[in-house]
């Protein structure tokens, strides 16, 4: 029998159960909501496990209801210390959180309303928890469907990239916002007599995640428990991985596909973090239908042919005008049984004098070319570090519903650029491009950024992929070492994975700089940098070319896969006539560049409650003094109820000098306009060669 009387029943027959109590091994009780199909059951379960407050979602409006209408229990659990679950939460992806997930799955499997077959699904945080829990192998976890997730919390998450500190995101979005979200109260109509105890537990140990992340500036033991990279064999259930080429976690699915020892499939579309059912950018597809088809096979044993379909399906992107507001990507769906294919090849291009990028055809020809170049020119190119290069690179995508790159020529003006001749025929790539660069710097700390772009005949430059390496992490992400002035180092930079079709007449460009602002926090020293080329220091770009699909001249190949459109298409971010959600500013007299962002959302979890979230961010970086960087994020939550109002305000300030990061975080909670709770945190963290 089901554990509770349904809170409500939909006209479809789906029943909604609220705050089902799920025990864990240490006695902590987690809160779970369930959408249950019509009929008597038992049913297989599709479980989402995240900290983003299930009680703020209106019943029968989301994908858990969708799963119930397709014969699964759609369940969602608040992580320990969040929402309506007991205890406290002071960091993401803690080992105890993973153990709780294991315990929840095994408890669900024992209930008479469950068939004992359970899938974990989720995008972003829910994708993370899916792979993390799968790696500790609960016996009844039958499959996982992670979307927009990572396998490595240090190299491929929202905190660090290539050993460099990310900039705007944790202050303007996730990191700062979670301090406020974890302080919001549970709702008394759901938590009953536990209301006061739960809220006090949440408030007592609600420490900002950001302080922990800044205390761990190098890779190491802190980051490992939440990372499955290097231990993929621990995942012993089938995996369907879904991600978008403009998402922040783009590298993971293809990388995991190389190492998983279980059945898997990969679906990569053109989307950013908003996901497959959005137009940011489209074409959009019904991601929940794909989840249901996968779970029908693995949880119900329905022979629906899903495992007969190609293992890897990607959207092969092509050139579009680089407009930040575009809602469609030109391209086609391409399927492969595996990657790399038997006919794939890594094509190398040599960096040459005069900004030339030349295909490497043979060692003899290249040596001859290098010797000829050496007679007429110096064998390096030089550029001055400009901390605010990157404003055309878009916004690293894991939260804000916009951020596509724009025309790269704005940043290329302050970069070294190497460009091929116009292509005589199209080239298609799938996978990770790599830059092998020989570099020096006059600064002890310097990042190096490689950009791959598609240059149209009219000169418009579109960013295809980007890679970052903090030069102090050239040999180790755990034990960085300063750059010795003017010493030449070989730097190997992996660019983000992608699928891209360079059309005939277009050119391939490699751009090299030392910044990606506002995505990366600038390194603190002015410096002059050199990129070396020639037979003894052969700086090169390597791209993963796949066999070209045949198509009529001037047209794209036909789609090799088809998908249903979503029931509801999520459009681009809506804003008022006086609202500027994403703004780049230039302080001319001080030669500073700033990012200003504003987003606003509203939800109505029930007839008695509405929640408004307003987020604002200001980030400034100086071109004259790259150590002088400041960011301030403000997050205001207003909970309006028939019994009163609650306001939760979080303000996070992060600023830097040459030697340190200085953090100040303020939290204020007001009930009916009166101060109820207030905390502050102020800390200084020495820079570890960042």
What tags apply to this protein structure?
single chain; 690 residues; alpha+beta; Rossmann fold; Jelly Rolls; eleven-stranded mixed sheet; nine-stranded antiparallel sheet; 12 helices; 36% strand; globular
Please explain how this structure is put together.
With 690 residues, the chain is α+β, with helices and mostly antiparallel strands. It folds into three domains: 8-153 and 185-205 and 232-336, Alpha/Beta hydrolase fold, catalytic domain (Rossmann fold), CATH 3.40.50.1820; 156-184 and 206-218 and 574-690, no CATH class; 345-546, Galactose-binding domain-like (Jelly Rolls). It is 15% helix and 36% strand. It is built from twelve helices and 33 strands. It has an eleven-stranded mixed β-sheet with strand order 1-2-3-5-4-6-7-10-11-12-13, sandwiched between helices. Strands 14, 15, 16, 18, 19, 22, 23, 25 and 26 form a nine-stranded antiparallel β-sheet that branches. β28 and β29 (609-622) form a beta hairpin. α2 crosses α3 (125-134). The relative contact order is 0.12. Mean pLDDT is 95; it is low at 362-369.
